[in-house]
């Protein structure tokens, strides 16, 4: 009996080991890394993050992102930051704490009011670009080639559905952190700085979005697979964020009802599978021509084929990644669609997809499987792999991902028709001055002259 009990954890750890591989060791340099070289590396990351943020800001057509206030940035977080600087960081909104959006608002509130829209847009774009850079670094255990990891980072910046809702704002920055949390939990950094970074990402994500509790299965898998305490800085960060959320949880209420599962599954098929295959703008055209059901069926077959092919390249490593990616993608998209029961049944338009924020991580997790599969193929028997075959694989991969990126790079959204903030901030300030003090609350009157509102988180 004792022997069997001891064998079971070891067997479970062996099964899960492929999900948490150590990053490939870099060749030892001829001389120790100097402080100057480390500074250049940090400067390179900073430049990449800045360039990525600039690219993301350019994607919104119509009124520029830096001239358009969005949703709760204008009528929840900024008013709270102006009225109660920093103390609103522990004030719940939509029944849970949203640390990063409120922190961004508190920083923006220190700027002149005329710069508020630019402050929110730039901060949101920097968070998204920072998450892309983090995914590049943290995915090295699963995607060994830097060029393919760069492709993963680009997929974050060029996410076809990003401009519908989540890009370039403070309130939606946590949806990028949600994806970064996936890689933080899989990453096994060797340095203390890396551990601290992973813990910070985990805390920021969990402290900003209660849905990150859905990562509990992945946290549990890490605890089983990696029993050493030094592997769990990220686990501690996630747990600290969950503890932080207790403040909001004690004030939360149960949902009045749960939406129907078939509608949530259709939501996943239409806005995750189809969007992952065709992007957003092309998906609209295909659904209008062939119907939503047909597009979902074709997209599901294509995704299944890509995942099957990827797993065949390296079953020991890709199979656990595929299970984690698809499983977490389903949870992160379908659970909120069930809790916000009205989301799946609300029709989409050419400008708006209700609940599109719930689909971001799920789409990126499908993309990363295609990239990891290509990396596994190129890593397997490199001496016998013809160079032409490798070129074909990479070309097909880039073409497949690029279809959605190119067709959905820049388009109009509901923010595109906003009156430029440069013409609105003065009247906004006057309206705010007439509002009663609402500690931790929302200021509905402020939403009237600004971008259309949406359902709470």
Short description:
This protein is mainly α and 457 residues long. The model has no long low-confidence stretch (mean pLDDT 89).
Question: What topology does this entry show?
Answer:
Elements: H1 2-16, H2 35-57, H3 72-83, H4 99-108, H5 116-138, H6 146-157, H7 173-186, H8 192-206, H9 216-225, H10 233-244, H11 246-249, H12 261-278, H13 281-290, H14 292-313, H15 315-339, H16 360-379, H17 387-407, H18 425-433
Helix pairs in contact: 1-9, 2-5, 3-4, 4-5, 5-6, 5-7, 6-16, 7-8, 7-16, 8-10, 12-14, 12-15, 12-16, 12-17, 13-14, 14-15, 14-16, 15-16, 16-17
Descriptive overview:
The protein is 60% helix and 0% strand. The chain is built from 18 helices and no strands. Helix 7 (173-186) packs across helix 8 (192-206). The mean pLDDT is 89.
Q: Keywords, please?
A:
18 helices; 457 residues; mainly alpha
Any low-confidence stretches, pLDDT <50, length ≥5? Answer: none
Q: CA-to-CA gap between the ends?
A: 49 Å
Characterize the main sheet.
Answer: none
Subunit arrangement of the protein: single chain
Order of helices and strands: HHHHHHHHHHHHHHHHHH
How many helical elements?
18
Shape: globular
> What average pLDDT do the residues reach?
89
What is Rg? 22 Å
Portion of residues in beta strands equals under 5%
Portion in helices: 55-70%
- Secondary-structure class: mainly alpha
Count of individual beta strands: 0
